[in-house]
Design a protein that fits this description.
heterodimer; A: 249 residues; alpha/beta; six-stranded mixed sheet; 10 helices; globular; B: 252 residues; mainly alpha; two-stranded antiparallel sheet; 3% strand
């Protein structure tokens, strides 16, 4: 049996103010799988995401990435393996130029010189943003910044890519372009989103979180076709959505 | 959200754009120091410095009009300088029927001449060097990495915070807020407070994004990939200003 890319076992987490964010969450994601994490606001999606690279420590339960436990001694390697693209690209892009920002992660891994330059070029090529390498991030459009934010993580050559609401605030063309880029990546992808058609387009499998508990896990088409599950978890397909797309493939 | 931020950089690159930023930075500092050290009575030395700045600006492709426009940043200091002949001490001289302080006039002349030359040199530097490269140059000159990181963050988030404040102002105005007096500024004050809290929260999110990409305690070095020109060539204008200052002191 191959080692899962992500294994979350019996994970529970409570914030210092007493808010219970996750309760007994179990999740296994195979290498190369693309999976959507669906759920209403406050479901615990972002909290789960922040456990995958050890930003939040798991006092109860365990998280492992490619068979390696997410724990303090492993944090450097875990953060190389798990790339998180945050929702607001202005949070992710903090260096004066796009090139410096894409180089930030690999430079922290110890890369220098040509090796670092090659990583940066390859990551920018993957998202079609090489032309913007020497521009300041705030001179780019929102969609372009989102793609550069993706490049800042791809330059670390992660095994698992976690994206928090990647389609939010994007115009339809930018949304499609991002979907094409994500489809072209041969790595494990965890898509945290409210955008159900985007989940259907990109992820064969979905899980639903609500109130910190995992309440559904299955093929995305099947979950979106289950109106009772959607209603119970405050999930809704957009007006005009063609339900014929929900035939399980 | 896009950028409306041109900065001071000239978009048409001239011969000075490609020179390594740290050389231009040192040349500017030396020039400004030489101007400041020049005795204020030797007016001809300042004329010589002005010719040097004008020649370098011309070489860099900075037009006279652009230089003058950007010099307006020193207007508050000029206004202060104009006060000195009025409030200065005796002896006084009569100019157009007004009794003006002679030491005040000399001090005002020194402030305006030295200030204008210093700002002009800085304008030429800013017009030919992108700000990120200036920060990289400071790093190369061994300015502590923490300070350059703070500068880089200010550069990156200044626009983000300003545009957020602008959006809040528009949202207030759209709901009829039109403050004209200090006591009507409650909405604006609340916006600034909200912006402070949001910026603090953003800082926390940025820190999360940084540690997610392996940040521990120090920022990676920024590259300064300009062309390495001979130091003497880069420093030639500054050496001219130093020579003028020395000459001015020797004939004083």
């Amino acid at each position: 049996m191959t080692t899962p890319a992500v294994q979350v076992s019996n994970l529970s987490f409570t914030y210092p103010d007493g808010h219970v964010a996750l309760t007994n969450v179990d999740l296994v994601i195979g290498a190369g799988e693309r999976i959507a994490v669906l759920g209403p606001n406050g479901a615990g999606k972002t909290t789960l995401m922040l456990h995958l690279n050890g930003i939040h420590a798991a006092p109860d339960g365990s998280v492992s990435i490619g068979g390696r436990a997410v724990s303090k001694p492993n944090l450097g390697e875990i953060r190389r393996r798990v790339g998180i693209v945050f929702q607001d690209p202005d949070d992710q892009l903090f260096m004066p130029t796009v090139r410096a920002d894409v180089a930030f992660g690999p430079a922290n891994l110890g890369l220098t010189g040509d090796e670092l330059g090659d990583r940066v070029d390859a990551a920018l090529d993957a998202v079609g943003m090489r032309w913007a390498a020497d521009r300041p991030p705030h001179h780019l459009s929102f969609g372009e910044r989102r793609r550069v934010a993706l490049a800042t993580v791809l330059s670390m050559e992660p095994d698992v890519l976690v994206l928090d609401e990647p389609s939010s605030n994007l115009d339809p063309a930018s949304r499609r372009e991002l979907a094409e880029i994500l489809s072209s990546l041969a790595i494990t992808i965890l898509l945290v989103t409210h955008d159900l058609p985007y989940a259907l387009q990109l992820c064969p499998r979905s899980v639903v979180l609500n109130g910190g508990r995992m309440v559904a896990d299955g093929p995305t088409a099947a979950i979106l076709a289950d109106e009772a599950t959607l209603a119970a978890n405050r999930l809704e397909l957009p007006y005009g959505f063609d339900r014929r797309l929900l035939v399980p493939g | 959200m896009g950028g409306s931020h041109g900065g001071a950089l000239l978009h048409a690159p001239g011969p000075l754009h490609g020179i390594e930023a740290h050389r231009k930075l040192i040349a500017t500092v030396v020039f400004v120091a030489a101007v400041v050290c020049t005795p204020r009575e030797q007016w001809w030395a300042f004329v010589g410095d002005a010719v040097v700045v004008a020649a370098v600006a011309r070489l860099a492709g900075v037009s006279f009009g652009a230089l003058l426009r950007r010099l307006t940043i020193e207007l508050p200091f000029v206004a202060f300088a104009f006060m000195l002949p009025i409030i200065g001490t005796a002896p006084r001289v009569h100019v157009a029927g007004v009794a003006l302080s002679r030491p005040g006039l000399l001090a005002a002349w020194a402030i305006v001449a030295k200030g204008t030359l210093g700002v002009a040199a800085t304008v030429v530097l800013a017009s030919t060097t992108p700000v990120p490269k200036l920060i990289a140059a400071l790093e190369r000159l061994r300015v502590p990495r923490t300070l350059t990181a703070i500068m880089a963050f200010m550069l990156r988030y200044g626009d983000v915070v300003t545009s957020e404040l602008q959006r809040m102002r528009i949202a207030r105005a759209s709901r009829g807020d039109d403050p004209r007096w200090l006591w009507q500024g409650r909405g604006a004050a609340a916006s600034v407070g909200a912006l402070f809290v949001r910026s603090y929260e953003r800082g926390e999110r940025v820190h999360l994004a940084m540690i997610s990409r392996g940040y521990s305690t120090s920022m990676p070095r920024l590259g300064d990939d300009g062309t390495a020109r001979h130091w003497a060539l880069c420093l030639a204008p500054s050496i001219g200003a130093v020579a003028l200052a020395v000459l001015a002191w020797s004939v004083r």
